Amino acid sequence: PRKPIIAIDGPAGAGKSTVTKQVANKLGLLFLDTGAMYRSITLAVLQEGIDLRDQEKVKAIAANSKIQLFANPIVGQPMQVLLNGEDVTTEIRTPEVTANVSTIAAQPSVREILVKQQQLIGQSGGVVMEGRDIGTHVFPDAEVKIFLTASAKERAKRRHADLIAQGQVAPDLATLEQEIAERDRKDSTRESSPLIQAEDATLVDTDGLTIEEVVTAIVNLYEAKV
Ligand code: C5P
């Protein structure tokens, strides 16, 4: 039998990455940012200069790309990512990748390839996995399922702070809010495993909560179950 899995899903900018990492550290579990995998394939497609909607070519790129993820030793920084051996940690967070990732993530063949890799990484459990479809598709039998959300305004503010912390150019708040809303719309309305709260997930609205409060709530849920 595998060790327990915590699935953390939710819209862009809800604080999934920070919360995931801290919960994993508190409980001594591994963690995985699955969004970084979709971003990596998007970067590879953009670098090849092929049409993002050419599903055959995109599938070939997804099948032939080797993605490796590592915990970033720097506090507050996203996971380190190697794409075919090259460090793309910063490149997968550019506005160009962010604007196009939902188009790539909507393609069933891309999802099939990445979900298999995620299931392999999590097969023995002991992991906190964050994304959009972890509790609904990747590990529907996860012991703890969280749907993490916050108001659009709050999420735009957090994304703004994240981008600055990562040394990226941050668009103004109204633009960010619009971009986030557009990405959420695409992610929630796609046919293939859309962003949706699993029936058995616990909804955590993080507006007005500190990171610590959110982390403690999830740790408590885990300890009550395991
Ligand atoms: O989490 P992050 O915002 O980096 O995710 C980037 C994009 O990757 C999402 O907007 C979504 O299109 C896609 N994604 C997904 N399924 C996941 C994780 C991310 O479709 N499990």
From TrEMBL:
Q: Where in the cell is it found?
A: Cytoplasm
Any idea where the Cytidylate kinase domain is? 6-222
Give the source's domain of life in one word: Bacteria
Q: Where is this region: Cytidylate kinase?
A: 1-226
Could you tell me what this protein does?
Answer: Catalyzes the transfer of a phosphate group from ATP to either CMP or dCMP to form CDP or dCDP and ADP, respectively. Catalyzes the condensation of pantoate with beta-alanine in an ATP-dependent reaction via a pantoyl-adenylate intermediate.
Question: Which family does the UniProt entry place this protein in?
Answer: Belongs to the pantothenate synthetase family.
Q: What's the protein here called?
A: Bifunctional pantoate ligase/cytidylate kinase
Q: Which residues of the full protein are shown?
A: 300 to 525 of 528
